[in-house]
Amino acid sequence: MLEVLDLTKKYRNTLANDHLNFRVEPGEIAVLIGPNGAGKSTAIKCIAGLLRFNGNIAVCGHPNKTLEAKRSFGYIPEIPAPIETLTVYEHLEFIARAYKVENWKDKARDLLERMELDDKRKKLGKELSKGMQQKLSICCALLPEPRVILMDEPLIGLDPHAIKELKTILIELREKGCAILVSTHMLDSVREFWDKALIMMNGQIAAVRTRAEIESTGEDLEQLFFEITEGTQTGGAVL
Ligand SMILES: Nc1ncnc2c1ncn2[C@@H]1O[C@H](COP(=O)(O)OP(=O)(O)OP(=O)(O)O)[C@@H](O)[C@H]1O
């Protein structure tokens, strides 16, 4: 469903992504975990078609920069960027028209209620708090019901209710067969629901583990992370 082959991205002298290869299957939540600067956001931006890169990326079988691919994925950026002069509801209407979403009003109402933005529907983009902007960004990405979902640090800035709700939404989307890629540097935030962990370090994927592998071998993912990133072991919960 999402296939990344030899993804390489260089910014001047910085090799931010160095021949990344991975897949995210339908009904799978993959987490891209790594310390600051590991190259997670760069990878997600390349997949979302926002950066030039070397390699091949396919979304539902289509090269990622094609219209067919863009119709198939939803992207939640690390930093939300609402349109200042549109209201919350107008953002959703805009997306609904652009993607020709059927029954969009019902879907928008459901998303706004779940993200507790329902009473903010008349607020302008520039009047939203950082957390509200993030919630709107999530609603906009999910409204067209994408088959592939790309989330760059989606839980940062959300209140506890929204975090709980977003986790529930992700699990529902996995059950519906979506392929989901979530980047984070906080393993704790994805601990309950990840299926495949891609540990990034210095622009490379240093290790890949499925939950089934971890459960069958008894390996500790957090320990593995610190062994890779620091050559140390720790009992700390936040990576
Ligand atoms: N626009 C840019 N121009 C030059 N270098 C960049 C740019 N964006 C990122 N980099 C560099 O690329 C590398 C990977 O950065 P990236 O933002 O992808 O990491 P990250 O894993 O998402 O980090 P964080 O967890 O801090 O968000 C870093 O060395 C960073 O300094």
Folded structure, characterized:
The chain is α/β, with parallel strands linked by helices and 239 residues long. The protein has a domain at 2-79 and 147-229: 3-Layer(aba) Sandwich (Rossmann fold). It contains 8 helices and 10 strands. The protein has a 6-stranded mixed β-sheet, sandwiched between helices. The radius of gyration is 18 Å and the shape is globular. The structure holds adenosine-5'-triphosphate. Adenosine-5'-triphosphate is lined by residues 11, 14, 16, 34, 36-42, 185. Pfam families: ABC_tran. This is ABC transporter ATP-binding protein. Keywords: ATP-binding, Nucleotide-binding, Transport. Residues 2-227 form the ABC transporter domain.
The first-to-last residue Cα distance is 28 Å
The topology string of helices and strands comes to EEEHEEHEHHHEHEEEHH
CATH H-tier superfamily of the domain at 2-79 and 147-229: P-loop containing nucleotide triphosphate hydrolases
- CATH class assignment of the domain at 2-79 and 147-229: Alpha Beta
Tell me about the largest β-sheet.
Answer: 6 strands, mixed
Number of strands: 10
C-alpha-based Rg, rounded: 18 Å
> What structural class should be given to the helix and strand makeup?
alpha/beta
Shape: globular
Mean pLDDT: 93
| Ligand types | adenosine-5'-triphosphate
Lateral strand order in the biggest sheet: 6-7-8-3-9-10
CATH architecture of the domain at 2-79 and 147-229: 3-Layer(aba) Sandwich
Oligomeric status: single chain
GO molecular function, one term: ATP binding
Keywords: ATP-binding, Nucleotide-binding, Transport
Pfam family, one: ABC_tran
Organism: Caproiciproducens faecalis
